[in-house]
Amino acid sequence: MLKTNISEIEKEQNDLYNSFFEGSGEEANVSFDVLFAGKLYITIKIDDKTYEYEEPEPVGNALKQKSLRKRYCLRALYKALSAKTGKTLPWGSFTGIRPTALAREAIENNETNEFSVTEFLEREFLISHEKALLCSKILKNQHGIIKNDHLIDFYVNIPVCPTRCAYCSFISSEMKAVEKIMPEYLEALKKEIRLVKQFMFDKALIVRNVYIGGGTPTVLDEKSLDELLSELSFKVNEFTVECGRPDTITREKLEVLEKHGVNRICINPQTFSDATLKRIGRQHKKEDVFEAYSLALEKGFEVNMDMIVGLPGESGGAVKKTVDTLLDLYPSNITVHTLSLKRGSLMQDEKLSNLKNLNKILSQTHQRLMEAGYKPYYLYRQKHQLGGLENVGFARDNLMCQFNIDSMEECSSIMAVGAGAISKRVFSLENRIERQANPKFLKDYIERIDEMIEKKKQLFS
Ligand SMILES: C[S@@+](CC[C@H](N)C(=O)[O-])C[C@H]1O[C@@H](n2cnc3c(N)ncnc32)[C@H](O)[C@@H]1O
Ligand code: SF4
Q1: What whole-number distance in Å separates Cα of residue 374 and Cα of residue 334?
Q2: Ligand 1 in contact with 270 (CB < 6 A)?
Q3: Can you give the pLDDT at residue 351?
Q4: Number of the ligand closest to the Cα of 407
């Protein structure tokens, strides 16, 4: 339990406390007191021990001072928890989800530069050398970031799947549960696309990349896909469809995607062990991935593939085999996720893989991909990720998925339509982001479609 006298960062302090104690069966009474007198004088009591720290005076404008105060307080708390437990965390005192965005901002604000950003992250946030180095590599590899508020990305959400995978915490319905309202959903979605498109035209907002995600968009039949894609006639560099589940991919559906200018698709194995696929309720086999992949190559799509480290029952050996197979297939993009177990997934009580080795297995996976010519180019963290680790996207031959960079780094506005979609408007000069979320469930979305279109117009006006 944690008691604090600086309530503005209570949530982050609790996150840090949980990162040290969650799942260990241990707990401690922590009290945190800070005195502002030029410098910060911080006293932390953990059970019967007292730790005292002196941190520098936060300087700059009010916003900057607030951010530095938070940074210094969390850093002191991290030092005390680390001293008490003897543990260190891969991401140190950083509790956020976008460390590379933080690093880029620090470079833009002249707090550091691209040559010394590794040391900056280690010093300011006590991030491990390995993770800080990974961030700095990603910053060097990322390209195509354009700060122009008239260029935006367009996202369409299809939160429906053939069946539910046991580990998944995304809000997505099984097709059989929503089959009856699907025609109505697609009508509402097409209406939203049409009206928003007209509005974007009036406001001279130019779409750079399109991404249809979910869920599993290819759960739709060919006719529905054809009708939906007919509404998305943008002239773009990158048009991605997250097919995801290989068991939803057919030659006919890929022909529909091809006809409408889609040039990148995701086919996600997660693992190449059929035993694990069965265990996690993912209703396909590794052979389905091979079949879908060869169809995709025949049609000339760039292919993104996802894998997950930390799946139940998987040791380093199983992960190595998955990486071997991925390297044999050699897709344009490989994203390596670390399992996150959130409320809402069916797998809460599963016996998990050995956590001790997880960071080592993840690092070996990254290393092997880099040795094979893949470059890391985006990174994000999620709540409840095993070992407090992260997800990293890799691409070979500079075939990076621009939408992944834009959405994870929050460097471009996104007009997002469909149930559960979150639109973001980035005000790049003011360094500010505003959001608008559509209702998560199909029925609510259908009922409130006109209101959602109006809200989107307000957001971008
Ligand atoms: C939006 S999800 C769904 C994509 C698609 N429906 C599929 O399953 O292939 C994108 C990716 O997030 C990852 N993911 C989903 N749930 C996860 C979890 N609980 N922990 C870690 N990664 C997860 C998976 O690798 C998945 O491919
Ligand atoms: S992992 Fe993908 S296919 Fe499985 S339930 Fe989640 S969104 Fe659907």
Answers
A1: 8
A2: yes
A3: 53
A4: 1
- The structure's pTM equals 0.95
Ligand index nearest the alpha carbon of residue 307: 1
Q: Which of 332, 247, 258 is nearest to 298 (CA)?
A: 258
Mention every residue, 6+ apart, whose C-beta is less than 8 A from residue 38. 57
Nearest ligand, CA 311 = 1
d(CA 6, CA 69): 10
Helix or strand or coil: residue 231?
coil
Calpha distance 225→230 (Å, rounded): 8
Q: Is the CB of 216 under 6 A from ligand 2?
A: yes
For tokens 């900056």, name the residue.
Answer: 120
DSSP state of 177: H
Alpha-carbon distance of 185 to 114, in angstroms, equals 46
Q: What is the DSSP letter of 9?
A: G
Helix (H, G, I), strand (E, B), or coil: what is residue 366?
A: helix
Residues 328-353: pLDDT tens digits? 999 999 999 999 987 656 665 555 55
Q: Distance between CA 394 and CA 336 in Å, rounded?
A: 8
Q: Which residue puts its alpha carbon closest to atom 4 of ligand 1? A: 244
Residue 268, ligand 2, Cβ within 6 A: no
Q: Please state the atom number of ligand 2 nearest to the C-alpha of residue 161.
A: 8
36-to-16, 66, 429 alpha-carbon distances in Å: 22, 12, 32
